[in-house]
């Protein structure tokens, strides 16, 4: 089925470009039926009518987010990794570790290429590999490293 570049809003009835609609996986064409402006107006009205419920829901979500963040920050493995990252940051800053100007994986370098410090093994904190952002992402996706 060919993809159309426009869609009719189910609320205001205007034909608008697809950029005026929010992507939604559950919809047949992949976009919500209401345009962004109509959806925003509907949500403002819904919140005004259901203010007590909306505030309670926001409080629940914020509480869950806070609890998750506290547990995340107290994770000893994360704290250790962050300490190693801080150590290498300062080692580079004071000149103990030389900063490379090219990616050690693909060789990219020069102006506009940002290099990241990658730790293959956190037990050896001063052993880092300099990788460009795409290579750093590839390494983490390949080995499934979350941190």
Structural class: alpha+beta
Rg, Cα atoms, Å: 24 Å
Distance between the termini: 41 Å
Helix content: 40-55%
Element order: H for helix, E for strand: EEEEHHHEEH
> Widest sheet: strand order?
1-2
Low-confidence stretches: none
Number of helices: 4
Number of strands: 6
β-strand amount: 5-15%
How do the strands and helices of this protein lay out in sequence?
Elements: E1 6-8, E2 15-17, E3 21-23, E4 31-35, H1 36-49, H2 51-73, H3 76-94, E5 115-118, E6 129-132, H4 133-143
Antiparallel strand pairs: 1-2, 3-4, 5-6
How would you sum up this structure, described in words?
It is a single chain. The protein has 147 residues and is an alpha+beta fold. The chain is 46% helix and 15% strand. It has helices at 36-49, 51-73, 76-94, 133-143; strands at residues 6-8, 15-17, 21-23, 31-35, 115-118, 129-132. Strands 1-2 form a two-stranded antiparallel sheet. It has a two-stranded antiparallel sheet with strand order 3-4. The chain has a two-stranded antiparallel ribbon with strand order 5-6. It is flat, with a radius of gyration of 24 Å.
């Amino acid at each position: 089925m060919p993809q159309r570049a426009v869609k009719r809003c189910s609320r205001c009835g205007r034909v608008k470009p697809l950029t005026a609609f929010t992507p939604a996986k559950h919809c047949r064409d992949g976009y919500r039926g209401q345009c962004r402006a109509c959806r925003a107006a509907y949500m403002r009205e819904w919140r005004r009518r259901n203010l007590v419920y909306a505030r309670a829901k926001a409080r629940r979500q914020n509480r869950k987010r806070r609890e998750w963040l506290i547990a995340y920050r107290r994770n000893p493995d994360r704290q250790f990794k962050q300490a190693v990252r801080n150590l290498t940051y300062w080692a580079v800053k004071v000149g103990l570790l030389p900063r490379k100007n090219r990616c050690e994986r693909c060789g990219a370098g020069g102006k506009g290429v940002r290099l990241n410090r990658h730790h293959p093994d956190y037990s050896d904190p001063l052993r880092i590999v300099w990788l460009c952002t795409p290579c750093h992402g590839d390494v983490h996706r390949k080995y499934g490293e979350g941190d």
